[in-house]
Every structure is written in C-alpha cells, then in structure tokens.
Amino acid sequence: MKRQVRVLAVDDAPFKFDNDRAMVVGVVMRLPNYLEGVLRSECKVDGDDANQVLELMVQGSRFKPQLKAIMIDGVALGGFNIVDIDALHEAIDVPVITVTRDPPDLAKMGSALRKHFPDWEQRYEILRRKELLEVGTGHKPILVSLAGIDYYEAEEIIKKSMVRGAVPEPLRVAHIIASGLAKGESKGKA
Amino acid sequence: MKRQVRVLAVDDAPFKFDNDRAMVVGVVMRLPNYLEGVLRSECKVDGDDANQVLELMVQGSRFKPQLKAIMIDGVALGGFNIVDIDALHEAIDVPVITVTRDPPDLAKMGSALRKHFPDWEQRYEILRRKELLEVGTGHKPILVSLAGIDYYEAEEIIKKSMVRGAVPEPLRVAHIIASGLAKGESKGKA
C-alpha cells in the first residue's frame, strides 16, 4: 500500500422523523487525519436512493481517482435507506467498507422493515447479505462489511485510520461535521 | 500554557452577491488538529451582525469554558460584515486573533466602503484600529491582529496550530468545511 492513503468517509446527519430528507456528509481524508475535502449531499429519509446519492457524490468528486475506499458509518443513510455496497462498488469501482460498533439486531430490523416497507424483503436481503467481520482497534473491536476489498487490506486501512478511541478518524470527523451542521453544535461521538 | 489547547476557528462560506446571508462555520479544535466540534451560524452579507453572530456562537457552545482563543479567517464575515475584535473580546471574555495571509489594501477598502455604506466611517475605523503583526510559520509569515492576548501568547497558539503549510490547521479545516458545504465540494485552500 502506498504511503498516502485517501478515503472518503460518509455519515448522515441526525434528522427528525417528520423530515423528508437527511443531509449526507462526505469527508475526504488522507489517513489518518489530514482533511482534504468535504462533500455534501442529501437523501430521502427511509427512501431508496442511498446508492444513487453515494454514487453521485463519488463520481462528481475531483478526489475520485485517489480514493482507496469509501467508509460508511453503518449500513444505511437517513433511517432505513439501506446501502447495497456490492452494487455501489460495482458502480463506482472503489472498494466500500461499512463500519459499525455493535452487531445489528437483524430480527428486530426485519420486523420493523416488514411493518413499514412494501419492499421489505429486498431491503432485508441487502441487510443480511454481507458478513460482518471483526477488526481489532486496540480498543473495542469494530465490525465491518466489505465490497471489492479483502479483509486484510480493509484491516490495514482501518488500522491506518485510528487516532484515538475505537472509531476510524475519518468517520469520527464526518459525524462531527454532519451533526454539527444539522444541530448548530455537534454532540456526542461517531 | 497547558498541554491541551483548544481554539474555535471561524470562517465564512463563499456566497454569491445576490445572497442575503452567508454561512459561518466554527470549528473547535484541540491543537494542532483534533476536531472536537463544529458549529454553524450565518450572518448578513455586508451586514453589521458579525459580532453578534460570533458572540452567540461562543456563548451558546458547551466548549466555551475550554477555549483559549477564537481565530477568525480575516477581519470580516460575509463581505464587509466587519468584526470588531475588541468588542468581541469584551463580550465573550475569550481572546480573539484574526489571521490573514496578505496585508489588506486599506485605501482600496476604504474607498469601497465609502461608496457602498452610509456608516462607512465606523466600519473603516474598525478595520484600521488594530495593528497587524507578523508571525513566522516556517513558510510565508502570516499577519494577525489581537484582542485580549499578547503577541507572545498568540504566537505560541499559532505555532501550535501548524500542521503543514502556512495556514493554522483549525482555520484550514474551517475553510474546507464551509466551502464544501456551500458548494457541495470544497475547492482550494484556506
């Protein structure tokens, strides 16, 4: 792996349940913590445009040729707007890594999907398709799912992303920006 | 000076001349480059609310007790919405440092003010009141004006803020966030 590794880290901003749309913030970072760019988009809350939003964010960016990976905080943007990372990787030809700290309760998510979405089976299939793999961080391990990248390369990128604590720095920064802009002041941690 | 030094760095987002308001972004950073919070506000383009906007941004922030200084990119937000840093320091009781890379052309600014603002003399007085002091950065020196802080302490904060190049890292990050959010993708450098 080259010395300079750039990733795009994506998080959604907090939203209220009567909001139609949620802000999506992308942060281009040279690992571990040199911010090079910030991108903004938005997606439909509980919609199905997460892939399209991320594809446009990446394709429209001058940073695209330099990106080693897209890191996404969780598996969805704006509620249940689930990202199909295999399709995203295929569309943009950049590896995709989702990062979560706690294993999702798939049974609970499945029943919430069934209740609220006519296309729940499709959303549930995306949620369940990818294996969650553990990556050690020196703190609590994090869970990743991968598309277009093998475990060892993903692990190297995650380890290069760590500054303090158990959250990759690009995702921590994306979270602070997204929540700070949504609320006026950011609170809590990614 | 304590080991952990936090500053709030402020920049305005690019705006078009038919915009009434410009976004203002504040970044709370533990020097040199650990982002802890992002604050958002806005001010009137060419208005006179810059001090009020910054005062509310600081007073409303949970970070206020920990701030060693406010750094402002330039002497105004949103065009000619000039910050009176003496009055700001008095209002918030936190030292204020403006940072510019090139000496302003005061004569040119004065004649622009005279042409467009009935209260041009007041604005011009604020612009001229503060001495600009040079701080070495290892690259091109930067120019600062100060309120509530002496030269040597300001110099120490500036030097602690440097990561690469000649712009304090908190201001570089505030600039990237502000311009990224205004345009969708940030361009250029602070």
List the helices and strands and how they pair.
Two copies of one chain form a homodimer.
Chain A: E1 6-12, E2 21-30, E3 34-44, H1 50-59, E4 67-73, E5 76-77, E6 81-82, H2 85-92, E7 96-100, H3 106-116, H4 120-129, E8 133-135, E9 142-147, H5 151-160, H6 169-183
Parallel strand pairs in A: 1-4, 4-7
Antiparallel strand pairs in A: 1-2, 2-3, 5-6, 7-9, 8-9
Structural description of this entry:
Two copies of one chain form a homodimer. By secondary structure, the first copy, chain A, is of the alpha+beta class. Chain A has helices at residues 50-59, 85-92, 106-116, 120-129, 151-160, 169-183, and strands spanning 6-12, 21-30, 34-44, 67-73, 76-77, 81-82, 96-100, 133-135, 142-147. In chain A, the strands form two sheets. In chain A, strands 3-2-1-4-7-9-8 form a seven-stranded mixed beta sheet, sandwiched between helices. In chain A, a hairpin with a 6-residue loop joins β8 and β9. In chain A, α1 runs parallel beside α2 (85-92) and α3 packs antiparallel against α4. The radius of gyration of chain A is 16 Å and the shape is globular. The two termini of chain A are 27 Å apart. The model of chain A has no long low-confidence stretch (mean pLDDT 92).
Please summarize what this structure is.
Two copies of one chain form a homodimer. With 190 residues, chain A is an alpha+beta fold.
Which descriptors apply to this entry?
seven-stranded mixed beta sheet, 6 helices, 9 strands, 34% helix, globular
